[in-house]
Structure formats: structure tokens, C-alpha cells
User: Fold these one by one.
Assistant:
Number 1:
Amino acid sequence: MKEKWEGALKIVREHSTDSAIFFTCDKESTLLLELRMGLDIPVLFVDTGLYQDEIYQYLKTAEEHWKFKTVILKNEKVIGESSASGKEDCYVLLRDKIILPYLLEKGIKTLIEPLKGDERLKKDRVIRVFPLSGFSDLDVWRVIKDRGIPYCELYNKGFRDVGCEPCSASEKQEDVDREEVQRRLKALGYL
């Protein structure tokens, strides 16, 4: 675990000039804040207006804990488009149509993202860096626990992932139809 953390730290430090962090208040982007300690890297948050109160509360907690001021980005037209798309397309739409124009306007050359994902962002315009790409969920939680890092309260309420309410609500652990899962496992020969 120590090697993974040191590797992620090295990546963030190597890309600390002309860069920004895409913060979503999830556990992975929370680790990015821990990795940026002592560095002057802007933290970007896209406010879709569809977050639970706990997200906004955690955003304030994070600002106080790591002593930074979030750059809050918002574009009502794009946010309206994104709500009609699926989770992955929504993320890409928000990143490409809200964050990318901001990065280009400010001359920011590198976007530090929590997880390696969609590669549709034009690579000739902004470098994308994923310092946590080798981390599992268990690794992330281990670092949070070991370092005493504050995290969003929604995780304590049964959410596996946090973000906008439509996506987070669909991933709440209690929402899983256990009978359907057991039926599928039996059909596959596991039960």
C-alpha cells in the first residue's frame, strides 16, 4: 500500500504546475485532496444542482480540512442536457462542456482526475492524469482510515458511491433486489 500511495503522490507532484483537480466529493477524489497537501493546485467542482445536502456539507468540510477554496463551475444548459444521459455520458458531458472550457480559458494544461475513465477528452488540449488508477476500493478505504481522512457522510448511510442524486440513489446498497441477485447466481450455478 505504501508504494501505491508514494507512486500517486509522485504523479500529483510531477503534474502540480498548470494543473487542476476534478473534485466530485467521492472517496477517490477525496484522496486527491490529501495528495495535493502543500501544493497550490486549484480544485474544481461542477455544481449540477442535483446533489444531496450531504455533498454540499462535505464540500465545506473538505475546504476547511485541506484549507482551499473550491472553484465551483456551473452551466445550466449543459446540466439540463446531462440529466437526460446515463451516468458515464453525464460525467463526460460535464467534464468536456463545463470543465474543459474553464481549463482552456485559464491556461491549465493538466486535469487530475480521481479514476481512469472515458478517453474522449481531446488529448491535444489537456493532459489527463489518474494517480489512483492502481487503487482498489479497499485500498482507498484503507488510506482513508489509516490517515484519518474525513469523507462524505453518504457512505455511512449505505451509498457505495456518491455524486448527483439520480446516480447516487440508484447505487444505494439497500436498493439491490437480493432475490433477483440470488436468482441470477443460481442460474449461473453459483448457488
Number 2:
Amino acid sequence: MMRSHLSMMSAFANALVTASVALLFFFVLSPAVAAPSALIESIAATAAPSAEYSVGQLRITAPWMRATPKGATVASGYMTITNTGKEPDRLLRVESDIATTVEVHEMSVSGEVMKMRPLEKPLEIEPGGMVELKPNGYHLMFSRLRQGVNEGDKVSVTMVFEKAGKVEIELPAAGIAAKGPANEGTMPEHKM
């Protein structure tokens, strides 16, 4: 009986060692599977060539937004707006069919508390200046979403400027945790 018990323990130990070696082999030689968050972050941080729009003396580059989790009621959008003119211009309003309201918000840090609030005045783009709408800074806040935003979607937005006038742009949706525009080559065509 003792020999049978030792034999079972030996078989169990061998199985455990075999499983451990297999897992070690799997995780060491397969870093994408072993560290999916690193892969996702790497993909999410990949900058891509993106659309560029011009209206009046303004140039809008690198528009993008984040996909939303299921049931989300808000979304955020980003881009860079450059004023090549000699006079300031202001973003008066933003509209999109996916949300009841779209406002320019700003994030600020007070002590260790991060705050977000809508701008009290229209966003001004100084002559020869550039304003970046980016995570943790100025951004478009889509509120009371009428539908969710999935990675790969392209969301239509109308921007109205004081001097330059109206322009229609598309914001391609990157992943939920993206830190920049997604690689357009990997995004399926899906227009909203």
C-alpha cells in the first residue's frame, strides 16, 4: 500500500512538473498571450496616418475618439486644431447625431484631485497657434449618448467656428483604453 501511495505521488509530481514546464514554455515564448495588456497598450499607442480637414484658416488633424463600454452615457473625442491665419478664431459649437450634447471640456489637477468641467467660453485658437484636444486636457465630451461607440466606428461631427464657419469631420474610434489614434489599417470600415 505504501508503494502504491508513493507511486501515485510520484505520478502526480511528474504531471505537475510537466504542466509547469508547458506553462513556462507557453508564457515565455508567447509574450503576446502572457502579457495581453502590454500588447493592447502597444496597439492602442500606435499612431496612424489620419484624416486632415481644413476650413477657413483652420487645419484639423488627427481626429479620433475612444470606443465606449457597453451602457456608457458619455464618450470623448480628440484632435489638433491649428490656426494658420492672422486672427483668432473660436469653436462655437459641436454637434453629432450620437449624443444629445457635445461640449468642449477641460481637465485640471488641484492637489491630487483631477477635475473635469465644460469651458465657460468658446475654445479660442490664437493666430499662428495650435490647440490640442487630448486625454487629460481639453477634449470633446459627448453626453447622453444615443448609441455606443465601438472600436472601428467612424463618428460624424459638425464643428462650427466663429470665423472659419462649419466643417464636417469624422472621428475614428480607437480602443476603450487608447492613448492615441488607432492604426487605421486595422480598423474595419463602419460609418455611423
Number 3:
Amino acid sequence: MNIDVQQTPNPDTLKFVLSLELVQNGSIEFKNSSEANEYPFVQKIFQLGVELVFFGNNFISVKKNNSSQWEQILEEIKDIIKNDFPKNFKAIIIKKETNINQDEIFKRIEEVLELKIRPAVAMDGGNIILRSFIDGIAEVELQGSCSGCPSSTLTLKQSVERMLVHYVPEVKSVRAVSL
């Protein structure tokens, strides 16, 4: 299996690009080993001193904890992916949550996220999910390499907020929330 390791804006996160599809229609984030029961190779990665594993369309983002050094764990992560990744892996299909009660503004925000923002965020090894829109404030959850990234606040305000305000004038600001 070919693995292309890429830097992300978050110095604690690396992106491991694979030559296969991992997830269709979304992403999956594991915040601890117990959330990854179906994926033993992910549990092995957590044992190396990481705090987050994220599956995007064709990549795995890994966020190390503060006490780990990339020089110590990078090759081990690559070996785990090469040797323990399931040979018969089928892409995980995420069913989009649709709420019939979503209003038109929420749908327009979601469309801008999907078409203009998520592709750029995925290039950096992350994802952004709209959680709510109330009184002009779009609340979003940052995932993958974006979670805890030192530049995420700047990106959120200067890129995401600016784009959403431009395309959806009802949006007055964007705020990150964590679940």
C-alpha cells in the first residue's frame, strides 16, 4: 500500500494519504481507542501516544499528544497502516443526516460548506460540520487536523466566516463548538 505523508497546518497532526477510498459522504473521527472497536489497526495507532485518528475520503489524519514526537512514532504509524489495515476493507458509507425541519438558511450554509469550504479543509486533513444556526451565528465543529489547530481560529474567522457571510448574508458570525 502506498502512503503519502503530508504536513498539515496543525504541527501535532499528520495526514496519511492512501490510494483507496476510506469513507464515502463524510468522515469519521475517533477520539480514543474504545471508539475504534471495529478497527483494530486504529486501536494500535492510539497505543503509540496519539489523541485523535480521523478518516477522510482517502486519508487518515493522526494527531499526536504533547508528549509524543513524530520522529518516534511516524514510521510505526506507517507500518501499522501497511501491515494491519484490513486487506478486504470496503469504504465506509456515511448516511447524511437530513432534517426535514432544516430551514432554508441552514441548507444554504450547508451547501456553501460542502461546495466551497470542506474540500479545502479536507486538503489540510480535517472536516467542518454545521451544528446549528441561531440568531445569525453559525456554530460549527472542527474535526481531524482542524481540532485544536493553532491556526483554526484564524482560519475560521478569516476564511470560513468571510465566505459564509458573503454567500449567505444572514450569517453574521461563525463560532467553533466542540462536542
Number 4:
Amino acid sequence: MNIGDYLSFLVGYGVTDTDLLLAGILLFLLVLISLVMGFKGRYTRIDKAVRRCSDELKKHQRMIGLIGAKIKKYESTGSAEELEHWSRIEDELMALADLPSIKETGEEIILRTHVAQSRKDYIDVSATKESVMISIKDKKSIPLNIIYGIPATINPSKLIVTYKGNTLEIHAPKEPLKARETEEKGG
């Protein structure tokens, strides 16, 4: 059957062009309403995620204030008790900063980043020889993929990933120099 046959069939039942036009407009409005409702739900989820991040940042601000107080106490008293905790202050600040850090040692690259309010089960880490990708697929928020460029060639099959608190630490062993040279020469 072609479109003419369908129109003849509908006209046989008393359906007019106006009825078809109204049905088309109604269908268009239904589709439009469903799209708007879908967008509203998505924006509501985004709004909740932004509010959670804002709350997390306020928590970090309070923690940074406490660490600042520790530093001031050490500066004023110089007490051995505060000196004992001094070495952990940099680590605490890095964990709170949300900024990733990439360190290069002789044998490996160490990537450390803060992952707020995500369970270990929702985090997946993969790599190529030049990059590391962190995928977060939390049921409560929008999926997120972050790719970090690495300053050296790494062995992606030997990543060591640890997740402690809200800090994700990835140790990526560098490829041996001979393997890198062979690859650069073309085989």
C-alpha cells in the first residue's frame, strides 16, 4: 500500500484533511512535551550534582581553614607535636584541592586526583602508552570520562590503582628505554 491508498482508506471513514492535520499537530505536541519533560529531569539531576559539588567544596574550605590553623599554630609555637603532623599537611592539602598531580620518578609516573563522592565500584581506570583515562559511572550523576596526558611512555597493562578516602592514586610504570627506542625506530 502506498500513501494514496491510506488516504483513500481514511477518507472512506470520514476522516478529513483537517482531522489529519490536527492529529499531526497533536502528535508533534506530545513529542515536544515528552522532550521537555526529559530535559527537565536531566537538568534536575545536573542541578543536584552541582549542589553536591558545592557542598563538597564548602567542606574542603572548612578543612583548608583547619589546616591553616595548624600551620599558624606551628609558626607561633614551633611545638614538636605540630612538627610531627607537618609532613602530612601537604598530602592533606593536595587531597582537598581537587587538582590532579602528576609526578615522574625514575621508574614510574604517579597520577593522584580527588574523586568526590564516588564509590570505588563506579570508577574504572584504563590507559594507553601516552595517557590515562578515568571513567566514573555513578548511578546518581552524569557519567564522566577524564583523560590525562602523561609526560613519558608507560606500560598500560601494569597500572597499579589505589583508592583511599576520596583520593585515586595511579602508579604507571614507564616502559623500558630499549622498548621505547625500538618502537621509535619502527619496529
